[in-house]
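Final report, closing paragraph on structural work. Over the funding period we assembled a curated collection of sequence-structure pairs, and we close with a single example.
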Amino acid sequence: MLITLVILVVLSILGYTLSVQVAAHRHRNRYLIDYAQAQYACASGIKQAITALSDLQWELISRPNEPDFSDVFAMSEPVYQDFLAQAAPMMTSDDTLTDAKSRRGGLVREDVDDSATAWDDDANDIPWQEPVAITGPYGPPWPLVTDAVEFEVGSAKVKVEIEDENAKYPLGWALIQDEELQTQAEVGFVTFCEWMGYQANEIDALREGLVAINKIRPFQIKFEATTAPATTSRAAANLRNRVSRSRSRTTATRQTRARRAVPVAEQIQQQNAIFSRLFHSSIVDTDLLARPSIASESREESALKYLGRWATRAVNINTAPRHVLEAALTFGSIADAPKIAEIVIQQRQEKPFSDIEELKQAAFRYTDAIEKCRDFITTTSTVVSVKVTAVSGVARSVAVAGVSKDGQKIKRIGVISD
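Its predicted structure, as stored:
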């Protein structure tokens, strides 16, 4: 009897162990399938989004009666909630209230009474109001240039978000070595970091990575047309070698290597590609940059959210928040940068600036400072990042692409994927 009991126990243990191993094997196989589907959907989303960018036009909106997004990044959660409470009456019209009443959990109710102010849920009246979001320069919350798009690719759910990279602080500015600009660049970088809550030792830690990048390649602000050795195909090179060998050894020939002109636009594109890889590499302390300065259920703020890592060289004064504006305007005047930034924030709510001359007219007392930083500010955004998140089952895949847009001409700077 005892032997039979022992055998049953052993068989039970073996059966349990086998079932656990089979379940784990199935789980791994399921995850691999889900991850492959998520990666495929992510790649498809990137291609589709970049293709659609050529026809996508994002326009700035007027926000005269709405609170500005400029200082949200620095608000503590209690201050932010008070800010939303004060903003709600200005941002909620009768039409939007009616629309909000007819929606709950993303479902539209056709039989709703427009005069109702509460929902009947299990015999309890639960007041409900659609959450208020601070309007960004294009309508959606900053830094989106258009509303996020969601769709499905097979079993994967895909979300596409397009962000304005010219609204962020260009990380390349911290690498400027020009003696005429180095002081302003240093002050601008420190200004940005202090706004994000970093201490002096943390700023020094960030500099170490930037110094390492600067040793690899200096970051240029000004470009001039130059020349470079002309590239030839392998077939052409082989033909040239055969012709050269067939010549008489006694004949001395002087060969000059062909060169071609390299336009400024091509040099900028090459720099963008190189630094986008460097800025997304492990050389930069992304853990420190991604550390939340403010974290709550409603939002999460960090320096990484406001950093441009696609080698942008100018900030859009119509779309940048306060600390990015101040860092950009520092190139004109360290002392006057906060004053000019305040003028920009007040004026752009009424009407976005169409060019730098309009800024000079609005801030005529600071014309000289604005002219000095002309190379660092703009009124239009030409660089965006496309973030695609794909989820299939329990697997998740994320890819981000940097894209420059000139009219309908699209150039991909690079793609970073997990």
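The two ends are 58 Å apart (CA to CA). The first strand starts at residue 103 and ends at 104. We thank the funder for supporting this effort.
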